[in-house]
Design brief:
By secondary structure, the protein is α/β, with parallel strands linked by helices. It is built from 9 helices and 10 strands. The longest helix is centred in the C-terminal third of the chain and has 16 residues, at 173-188. The chain has a 6-stranded mixed beta sheet, with helices on both faces. Strands 2-1-4-5 form a 4-stranded antiparallel beta sheet, covered by helices on one side. It is globular. The protein has helices at residues 44-51, 76-82, 98-109, 114-127, 143-155, 173-188, 200-206, 224-229, 234-243; strands at 4-15, 18-29, 33-37, 59-64, 67-68, 83-86, 161-165, 192-196, 209-214, 217-222. Strand 4 (59-64) and strand 5 (67-68) form a beta hairpin. The structure holds adenosine-5'-diphosphate (ADP) and magnesium ion (MG). Magnesium ion is lined by residues 44-45, 165-166. Adenosine-5'-diphosphate (ADP) binds next to strand 2 and helix 1. It is a peripheral membrane protein. It comes from Gehongia tenuis. This is Amino acid ABC transporter ATP-binding protein. Keywords: Amino-acid transport, ATP-binding, Cell membrane, Membrane, Nucleotide-binding, Transport.
């Protein structure tokens, strides 16, 4: 089996006349942590959303685990089940307990029994140190706790890839670390991850490849050491001078 898990070729996304992704070609390998940085509006979220079909691409191709998921005969359910996504705004269901939030999709979409789903949920909650919150409601939890639950909810579907869209941007500073720690441990365990973030420390420490997006294209792509230490593109330099 090829170790490329996601491949895009000339991916284009337009909203009416606005071209938001202007030909993105890249690959993500199994077990790799790819970090995406870039200015606001450069298309980072749209790129992630096209990968798992929260947005329909306007052109180009996406391959997931060797299967084409653009064009005819695509299996979108599989793509969505196998790519977990974590958003800036947690998006937990407010009127469901933590446990229900986590077990809902595995029961409904993967036809797991309640007992199976609950068992995995509790194991995962334990891993992120929140087993005692199983019966709580989201509003009873801090932002950092809610985001760790959102990560667990995605993991409960046993995804092959995790997509993170600025998972710490909505958090108070003192809660950023606890979420990044969970992401770091996932990375260490070999999870394939695509992470949009402004946390440059995380990018350097955990990222194996950094994509700098600007104006709907990958303007520069390199290892963190090279991209941060020796950026080649003027736009990368300008961006880094503002955020580092
Ligand atoms: P980033 O995540 O890098 O900040 P986005 O992917 O969110 O960028 O947005 C890229 C561009 O696409 C922005 O100009 C944004 O206004 C536009 N855009 C995003 N989603 C929509 C949408 N659903 N309809 C119209 N324009 C959109
Ligand atoms: Mg965004």
């Amino acid at each position: 089996m090829s170790d490329v898990i996601i491949e895009t070729r000339g991916l284009v996304k337009k909203f009416h006349h606005l071209t938001v992704l202007d030909g993105i070609s890249t690959e993500v390998r199994r077990g790799e942590v790819v970090v995406i940085i870039g200015p606001s509006g450069s298309g980072k979220s749209t790129f992630l959303r096209c990968l798992n079909w929260l947005e329909e691409p306007s052109g180009g191709e996406i391959f997931f685990e060797g299967q084409k998921v653009t064009g005819k005969n695509k299996d979108l359910n599989r793509v969505r089940q196998k790519m977990g996504m974590v958003f800036q705004q947690f998006n937990l269901f407010p009127h469901r307990t933590v446990l229900q939030n986590i077990t809902m999709a595995p029961i409904k979409l993967k036809k797991e029994t309640e007992a199976e789903a609950k068992k995995r949920a509790m194991e995962l909650l334990d891993r992120v140190g929140l087993a005692d919150k199983a019966k709580s409601y989201p509003k009873e939890l801090s932002g950092g706790q809610q985001q760790r639950i959102a990560i667990v909810r995605a993991l409960a579907m046993q995804p092959d890839v995790m997509l993170f869209d600025e998972p710490t941007s909505a958090l108070d500073p003192e809660m950023v670390g606890e979420v990044l720690d969970v992401m770091k441990s996932l990375a260490r365990e070999g999870m394939t991850m695509v992470v949009v973030t402004h946390e440059m420390g995380f990018a350097r420490e955990v990222g194996e490849r950094v994509l700098f997006m600007d104006g709907g294209v990958i303007a520069e792509e390199n290892t963190p050491a090279e991209l941060f230490g020796n950026p080649q593109n003027e736009r990368t330099q300008a961006f880094l001078s503002k955020v580092l």
